[in-house]
Design a protein that fits this description.
Blueprint lengths: L1 H11 L7 H9 L7 H11 L4 H13 L19 H31 L1
Amino acid sequence: MKIIAAYMLAVLGGNADPSAADLKRILGSVGIEAEDEMINLLLSEVKGKDLTELIASGREKLASVPSGGGAVAFSAPAGGADAAPAAAAESKKEEKVEEKEESDEDDMIFSLFD
């Protein structure tokens, strides 16, 4: 991802065909050392392609990826009925922790105005 960002920075900065040395210089300016293999792979994949076309094709591919919004699947806890009391006890512990945090906040608020 860092190499892609460096490539995009180079192209948006006016270098229509950045080299591996250009990308290394950009990444090196923020203390990142990139592998030559990864840089060369990226450059071979984008050679001769327009950045805006690459972004547009990437958006099309992302549009077909499901991104949630559906119902959440729920399953019973492992262990069947034995796990239910443990889950109930755990939720009670969480409630106690939340209550304590709230009371600490209340104490802080009053001490600020006293």
